[in-house]
């Protein structure tokens, strides 16, 4: 079973850099206030699956979610779990991309795979099918008003037989052809016309020749019908004009009620803007004087304490230049130290064998290298060719001159001894060379020894510089640390290196201020006394103004001012509302005195008009019937001709009826074949939708009836059209149909069901019923709910997802 496990939003609409890990494989709940991003997240899931910017296609909700900020790319990823594997669908789009749908990348367990590997799992449905079948929101509720049985059949068969669309088209073609031949209540189709014609012709034959008195009787009756129609039509028109006026008054009544409520809540507030401004200026002045008084008292207190060590402070300030100099030296030494380390690494990278020679004595290295060096190459024998040659000549001489042959054999033996001794020396040299390579890491025969000695000397020179600079850095760091510690002890707080400069600036400022304060101590005392007197005088003035305004404190005065301006704002709103009904004030007042009575009058007018509509329709029908009767009177001379016409009509009717029955039979055969191919989903889906609707309405509605439009049957057996249901009941029907459809196709398509704030019109009882149904369906299908109702979110799950942070 496919489950959505994680949502990763990079940039989409107003949402950026958000990742949601879904805690449950059954029901997950997103909670957020209006404009938090709930509907944006629903659209994100749909568009990552099926593409961005589908504005060229019809869609039940807003599709354009290009990021509001100038950020890129648009898009993100969805993570699905299926049969132990993880699918990641990443769709991205940036400005300049030619494809408005974005670039889709599908990964399975971290590896890129063809898109078909995922979409074959969901029958390659498109975005419209997903929105129609799996997304619930307020916008798509309107679909229930237009939904027909044909729509449900087409969706069901889509997942049944191969080429079901072609079969449906063929079935619809047969139905259309049959519809052009006969309709139950139709008049224009051929069979309907032939039947009507046959009936008319039979009536003509049975009536024979009507008497003129009958015709006059019908004519008089027709005139009476017309007179009654004109009278009723005028009455209907008068009532309709009254209803239009009543509707306008009803719209104005809302504003009038608000006006009366605001007027009743309006209270008089005594407030003087001039006095308030005077008091505000005095409060600000007092606040500033109090701040000055507090500062002067603080300075005086500091002078009286007088525990400031002026001498130590000046000593620390004198050493400031040395501190700065130490910092500069430290930076230079660190730079040089880093430079030498880089030189060392560069040298070793060019000559790796130096890494093994850092601790080697150069003189010892030279001695070891001389021991294995040789001016001549003893690896190749120069004697062996002579030995071979002498052996060959001696063999030949043994026949010619034995004495010469003996001499040659002796000489060959001597040369063989010399060759053995050369090989032994060469073997010793090879052993010493192997030992040298093992100890020093390079072959002196392959590497120029002078170059090695030169680079080794350079390395040791760099190592010496590194050692010296390291010692200098440590000494400078020690000096700096000692100075920082002494400064911290004086300031009685620990300091970091970057805080020293600011601390010294503050210390220098304090030294200057202390010098000034000591000199001005007498004037400071006088100033404090003057500030106290001035504050006392201003306080009296403030208290006088507060007393005048009948408040106890400045905070109460501020609240009084807020109440005054709120009152003014209400007066402005009252004036604005009054403009909406200035010409209807008296009439609205009269309605408010007895609104129920006025509503009853309006309802009576509506009822009367409805009855008049039915009556006018009946009069129209009666007049039409009279006209037909009058036109059907035939002369006696026409009877024979009409018999022939009736025979012709019968022949035409038989032919047309045969064609009609053939089309109907072919259509039903195709429908039954598709029923079987789709696994009998349609009957199951209809049964499930009725079960769900009965559960959601607590048994108030027992059945759903499909036809050109959908009707429901209540407890009493009455069939009711959708337009007469309450909004909440329509939504319950909407949920029952779509959830039943989703359940029937879950074996082929098991995508998550998305519910976006679709319970806003549900009362407590309806909410409990839908929760029970969702918990039941969540056993087999994943459900994700987006809601602004905190109580609903908590009722569904303990792990509520939010859009914060």
UniProtKB/TrEMBL annotation:
| Coiled coil stretches, renumbered | 276-306, 459-493, 521-659
Q: Which residues cross the membrane?
A: 384-417
- InterPro entries for the chain: P-loop_NTPase (IPR027417), YhaN_AAA (IPR038734)
Q: Tell me if Ribosomal protein is a UniProt keyword of this record.
A: no
Query: Pfam families annotated for this entry?
Result: AAA_27 (PF13514)
- Any idea where the YhaN AAA domain is? 2-203
Report the SUPFAM superfamilies cross-referenced here: P-loop containing nucleoside triphosphate hydrolases
Q: Mind listing the UniProt keywords for this protein, alphabetically?
A: Coiled coil, Membrane, Transmembrane, Transmembrane helix
Q: What is this protein called?
A: AAA family ATPase
> Organism, per UniProt?
Lactobacillus mulieris
